[in-house]
Amino acid sequence: MNKKERAAEIFDRLSKRYPSPQPALTYTTPWELLVATALSAQCTDERVNMVTPAFFERWPAIRDAAEADVTEIEEVVRSTGFFRNKAKNIKAAARRIMDEYNGEVPRTMAELVTLGGVARKTASIVLANAFGVNEGIAVDTHVKRLAFRMGLTTKTDPIQIEKDLMPLFPREHWGDVNHILVFFGREVCPARKPHCDACELADICPKKGVAQ
Question: Which site from 72, 101, 137, 168 is most exposed, i.e. has the minimal number of CB atoms within 10 Å?
Answer without folding.
Answer: 72
